[in-house]
């Protein structure tokens, strides 16, 4: 097969490098007093990102099974997590295109229809929540549920809360918590748009902080936009539909909504005053420039369109960038290697390269030797 | 010390991002992350040197070239990369190449120190013939 040589060697090599690195740093981790769990977490994060990048095909889906068997012998505790993890990761390739909109998507697709209760697909989340009070590691963790999964799933979070995922007819999914008592420290803020939301809406769920610390507020959601105003948030990409039973329960938790909505509305209200609608004279503009700078930071954070509209006319004149090098994947094709010999004769260059990793058209290639010619 | 060249690859960047996340969540220290990256450098360098055995040819037009600190950086246009099995065409590619002749042994060769004469005697006293 034409592509078999490269697609076989690259994943294998990456896998072996990962193994080597993880094993070599295990001692360093232990010397530093860092738990083995963190090491496993590093490995999982690393592998997930590699899969997400899609630079490598068929990455470690099979090897993972072998490793699981090996790990079963070593760490029985880990087995469950990895077991789920494996099942979940078996699906990521299918769901990656769906999740293309969200960044840093971890795709723990839980397909265990047999078990009505599924431990939160991402075992890391549990550990994160426990260990680090929902720290910023959660920012990279997103729960995504593929469309083909069973309609109703209950996800058990670490603190025993049940997140119920309901999949409506139009393929919209959302997550809400049926237990209201525990919601006090959580804010689930779905964007309810009757009539069916076509655009995916991203919800932020601020998990309960064990210490009773007040969760960060300022969750702002707009379709197809991720808005972070807190340092540590967990993003759950879902689409919101409006089935009535869910509405009832969400409005039950809607007590939290008014809290968020004023915060949500405050910023836009203020922004609009100073934004594009501002046609005052220059004197006023000078005074408001400082104000605008702060606002613009918020604008950029919130992704509000007002700020961007104001900036576009200013910057559009500066835009002289040429658009060459735009490949299918819009990646800059890079070759990182070592040179044996570089030779030039008049304007004819010859390259003798070795031990290189190439990223071309979004995919990774490797060579031990490369010889090239070019004219300058 | 092995080249840190390969940190800006898919493999290296995903490792750095993962380490950054762990630092953010304060599960590891930046110092530890640095150690991991150094270990990664060693691992990837040796893996490439030993476990990869294939050749690639390429041809294109040279747009820019730079040689600084013993590092070549080229930008080529309209390049065809040819491996035995497949052909890859790109409009633009950047090649960053470190000196392949430098390996750890050469890099770690001892170098001269300037020593004051009065300090020299005790040092030479330790040397055997």
UniProtKB/TrEMBL annotation, chain A:
- Record Pfam families: TFIIA
Q: Where is the composition biased (Low complexity)?
A: 69-79, 89-105, 247-279
SUPFAM superfamilies, alphabetized = Transcription factor IIA (TFIIA), alpha-helical domain (SSF47396), Transcription factor IIA (TFIIA), beta-barrel domain (SSF50784)
Q: Which InterPro entries match?
A: TFIIA_asu/bsu, TFIIA_b-brl
Residues in coiled coil: none
Ranges of Acidic residues compositional bias?
A: 280-329
CC annotations in GO: transcription factor TFIIA complex
Protein keywords: Nucleus, Transcription, Transcription regulation
* Keyword Transcription in annotation: yes
Signal peptide start-end: none
Compartment annotation: Nucleus
Please report which protein family the annotation says this sequence is part of.
Belongs to the TFIIA subunit 1 family.
What protein name is recorded for this chain? Answer: Ral transcription factor IIA subunit 1
Q: Which organism is it from?
A: Equus asinus (Donkey)
UniProtKB/TrEMBL annotation, chain B:
The record places domain Transcription initiation factor IIA gamma subunit C-terminal at 59-100
Presence of keyword Transport: no
Q: Name one GO cellular component term.
A: transcription factor TFIID complex
| GO BP annotations listed | positive regulation of transcription initiation by RNA polymerase II; RNA polymerase II preinitiation complex assembly
Task: Specify the superkingdom.
Answer: Eukaryota
Keyword Transcription among record annotations: yes
Domain (Transcription initiation factor IIA gamma subunit N-terminal) ranges: 3-48
Cellular location(s): Nucleus
InterPro entries registered for this protein in UniProt: TFIIA_a-hlx, TFIIA_b-brl, TFIIA_gsu, TFIIA_gsu_C, TFIIA_gsu_N
Q: Name one Pfam family in it.
A: TFIIA_gamma_C
Keywords tagged on the record = Nucleus, Transcription, Transcription regulation
> From the UniProt record, which GO molecular function terms apply?
protein heterodimerization activity; protein homodimerization activity; RNA polymerase II general transcription initiation factor activity; RNA polymerase II general transcription initiation factor binding; RNA polymerase II-specific DNA-binding transcription factor binding; TBP-class protein binding
Q: What is the recorded function of this protein according to its Swiss-Prot or TrEMBL entry? A: TFIIA is a component of the transcription machinery of RNA polymerase II and plays an important role in transcriptional activation. TFIIA in a complex with TBP mediates transcriptional activity.
Subunit field text: TFIIA is a heterodimer of the large unprocessed subunit 1 and a small subunit gamma. It was originally believed to be a heterotrimer of an alpha (p35), a beta (p19) and a gamma subunit (p12). Interacts with NCOA6 general coactivator. TFIIA forms a complex with TBP. Interacts with HSF1 (via transactivation domain).
Q: Which family does it belong to?
A: Belongs to the TFIIA subunit 2 family.
Please state what the protein is called.
Answer: Transcription initiation factor IIA subunit 2
């Amino acid at each position: 097969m034409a592509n078999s040589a490269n697609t076989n060697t690259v994943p294998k090599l990456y896998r072996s490098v990962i193994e080597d690195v993880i094993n070599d740093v295990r001692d360093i981790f232990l010397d530093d007093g860092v738990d083995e769990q963190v090491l496993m977490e590093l490995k999982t994060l690393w592998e997930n990102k590699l899969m997400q990048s899609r630079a490598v095909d068929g990455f470690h889906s099979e090897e993972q099974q072998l490793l699981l068997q090996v790990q079963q012998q070593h760490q029985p505790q880990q087995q469950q997590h990895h077991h789920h993890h494996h099942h979940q990761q078996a699906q990521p390739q299918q769901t990656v295109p769906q999740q293309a909109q969200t960044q840093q998507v971890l795709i723990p697709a839980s397909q265990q229809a047999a078990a009505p209760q599924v431990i939160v697909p991402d075992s890391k989340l549990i550990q994160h929540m426990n260990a680090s009070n929902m720290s910023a590691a959660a920012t990279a963790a997103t729960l995504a549920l593929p469309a083909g999964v069973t309609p109703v799933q209950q996800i058990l979070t670490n603190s025993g809360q049940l997140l119920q995922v309901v999949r409506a007819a139009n393929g919209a999914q959302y997550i809400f918590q049926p237990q209201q008592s525990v919601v006090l420290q959580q804010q689930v803020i779905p964007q309810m748009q009757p009539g069916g939301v076509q655009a995916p809406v991203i919800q932020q769920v601020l998990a309960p902080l064990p210490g009773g610390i007040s969760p960060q507020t300022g969750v702002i959601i707009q379709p197809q936009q991720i808005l972070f105003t807190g340092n540590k948030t967990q993003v759950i990409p879902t689409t919101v539909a409006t089935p009535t039973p869910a509405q009832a329960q969400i409005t039950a938790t809607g007590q939290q909504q008014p809290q968020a909505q004023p915060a949500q509305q405050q910023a836009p209200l203020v922004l609009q005053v100073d934004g594009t609608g501002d046609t005052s004279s220059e004197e006023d503009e000078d005074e408001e420039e400082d104000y605008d700078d702060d606002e613009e930071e918020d604008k950029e954070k919130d992704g509000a369109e007002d700020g961007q509209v104001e900036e576009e006319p200013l910057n559009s004149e500066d835009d002289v960038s040429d658009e060459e090098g735009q490949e299918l994947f819009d990646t800059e094709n890079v070759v990182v290697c070592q040179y044996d010999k570089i030779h030039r004769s008049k304007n004819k260059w010859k390259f003798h390269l070795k031990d290189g990793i190439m990223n071309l058209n979004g995919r990774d290639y490797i060579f031990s030797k490369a010889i090239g010619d070019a004219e300058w | 010390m092995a080249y840190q060249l390969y940190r800006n690859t898919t493999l290296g960047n995903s490792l750095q991002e993962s380490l950054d996340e762990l630092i953010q969540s304060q599960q590891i220290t930046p110092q530890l992350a640095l150690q991991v990256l150094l270990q990664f450098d060693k691992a990837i360098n040796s893996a490439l040197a030993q476990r990869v055995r294939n050749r690639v040819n390429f041809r294109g037009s040279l747009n820019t070239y730079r040689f600084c600190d013993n590092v070549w950086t080229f930008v080529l246009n309209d390049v065809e990369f040819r491996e035995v099995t497949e052909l890859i065409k790109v409009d633009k590619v950047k090649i960053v190449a470190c000196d392949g002749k430098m390996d750890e042994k050469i890099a770690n060769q001892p170098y001269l120190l300037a020593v004051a004469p009065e300090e020299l005697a005790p040092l030479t006293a330790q040397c055997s013939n």
